[in-house]
Each structure stands twice: as C-alpha cells, then as structure tokens.
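Example 3.2
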Amino acid sequence: MVSFDISKLNYDQRLRVLKKAVEKHGKAYIARVCNVNLATIYRYLNGQISTIPDEVIEKALQTLTVEEISDAIYGLRTVEVDPTTALSVVVKAMKDEGFRNFFLSLLYKYLGDYLKQTSQSYIVTEEDVELFEKIVRETRTKKTADDIIRYLTRALAELNNELTPDRLKEYIFELTEENRGRARHTAKALKLFIKEVVKTRDSHLARELYDSFKIPKAKTNYKPVSLSLDTLKQIFNNIEDLGAKAFFLILTETGLRVGEVLNLRVDQIDLEHRVIRIMKESETKRAYISFLHEGTAKWLKEVYLPYREDFVKRYELNVRKLAEANPDQNIDIEAWKTKLFPFREDMLRAEIKIAMRKVGKEFRLYDLRSFFASYMIKQGVSPMIVNLLQGRAPPQQFQILQNHYLAISDIELQQYYDKYAPRLLETVPTYS
C-alpha cells in the first residue's frame, strides 16, 4: 500500500475513503477488516459519528488500489498547472518514497502510452554525428565513408534528428516505395549509426530502434492494411488532442507522406484557396501541391489554428530554455514557431494510437497513404492523377507527363480532389 500521513486527512477525505472501500467490498467485509461492528460502519457512512479514527481509515486504505485511493482522497479533477508546479511535483516524488510510488502508479495508469512513446525516442546531437563520422572514417575507405555519411545526414535531416521505432519503420517504407536502392543504403547507414553510437548511450533503446526496420530486399511482401472510410472517421472522432486530430485529418484526406505533413509550415497552407504548397522536389520525389476540402479548411481555421497559436505562445519560453540547456541539439526557435505542427511527433502518434485501440484497428500511419490511393482509384480516378496528387511521380517523369501526355492545370487537379478525395468532416457534395 502507498504510504500516507493519515493524520492529515480531513473528515470528508476519510469519509470518501470509507465509502470507496464499502462500495468495493461491502459493509460487512469492511466492518470485519476495521475491527468495528456493522452498526458503527452505518453510523460512519450516515454522518452520525463526526470523527473516523486513523486506525479505521488505515485498515480501509489497505483494501484499495493506488488509483482508488487517489480517486477517494484527491479526486480526478483538472486544474491549471504551470511548468513550475509540475517540477515541484517531480522534486517531491524524488524525495518522498510514498508519494513517488503513488505518483508513478498514476503516471503509468493514465499516461502509460505517452511514457512508452517518449522512452522510445532518441534525439541525435552534433556530438553523435561527429562520433559516427570518426568511427566510419577510421574503419571504411574514403568513398564508402563518404557515401554512408551522406545517406545518414540526409536521413537525419528528414527525420528531424529524432529516432523512434514507428518513424524509422515508416521512413524506410516511404523510401522503398520511391527508390529501393536509396532505401537499402539509408537503412544500412541508420543501422550502423544505431549500433555504433546509440547503443553506447542507451543499449535498450538501441535494440528497439535497430529491430524496428529491416533493410529492404529485392521484393517486399508487405501488404497495406485494409481500411475503410468509416473506420478512419471513428478513429478521428476518438482522438482527443487537437494537434493529433489535425495531423490525422490531413494525412487521411491528402495521402501525403508522414514526414511531409510533419514538416509543413503555417505559410504553406492557403486556407482561402484550400491549397497546401509543399514545393518539395528531390531525386526521387515530386510533391509540390495538395489540397483541402472546404470543411477541413474551415475546421483548421476556426478550431485548430487558434489552438496551435495558443500552444506556441504558452510554451515558447520553455522551448527557449530547452534550447539554451541543450545547445548541441541546435533547436531553432523561430523555425519551431512556424511549424504547422509544433508538437513532439511521438506525442502525436501516441494520441492517435490510443484512438486506434478504442476503435479496435491499429495500423501504420503510412498505410493512410495506401488508403488514399486505393480509395481514389476505386472511384475511377486515373492512377496518373493519383500519382500527381500524392507526389509519387519523379521530377523527370512528371515533366514528360506534363509536356507530352497530360495537359492538366492545378485547378483541374483540385477539381479531381474535391470530387473524389476522402472526407472525414463532411459529406460528399452533389456534382452536376
């Protein structure tokens, strides 16, 4: 049982403890446990006895779990808590063993998914990269070392220098879809980095990261999970955090890559014209533009963006302090303030995963990209149009299509999107 100073409990708290114990075990059982007769229990509960002795409460507490005790004594209520208050709770937990056991039990019960996600996150520092480069250059030829470092540097940039099992798995899948050769080299570089650097910092986390993805083979046997629009709507409606809700909404309705949505800036979203200007072009990808439905643009403007702005204002000072305390992480405050999703990726994923479990359907976020493509194609949309909307056509191929085979404007592309793309917030409009 958690250690409490029972003498500090007031009458109302004592009464709630006794009622909780009686509710769980019955009056007769609690009377026996507390060494009082049944009539006395009745009088306690009815308020006929104005004091409940410490020894009675101590016996009653022994019949309850930590969560039940918390509910009885403190109640599960929401209050405004600033970072200073939160820190004081942590300090108390460090010094008070009884409170620490109680506090940790509550954390794992109510925030277990978040704690698990956070514990699976590794932030890559400049020191890590320098150590890796030194190791590689000492053990490989110059050309091989240059190649490994190049693939790793590009991967870390696209992963925002944060490694988590889920993100690594999806990132390699994304690369495999676009260019299997690059995916193989990148996967090898990441595994080597985890083995040589992360393992020396955190061996347990390194194992989880290392095992989370495989080096792509010539052919892949993975088949995307079959998803329905109704299931995705249920998941969306069960996401409580507005940041995660908006993130899931855009992923589902655009079919964009997870990394592309995570890296969006606010100025890339034109809510008036319902356009997302990604303007990303690489050796293998061209994702230059996407769109939003009217209901989605309205929801983002009226619900999400005010929430996001308030979040940035409330936590900017804390992020600045974090940046000052961790200069090796190169945290860019101004860049953070412009992000459409200025939240930790692992927290967004944890919120979405909780909603998935409530609905009973868990899958990779990258599967939303496959869902978008199959949803559009089943409605008769040309795969060529789908590839353009999802930025799947490489630059050279895109230019050939545009110049010789496919004369289509952004306005026409948006019309395809408006008519056929999946919607989580509104019904499909009628077209003549």
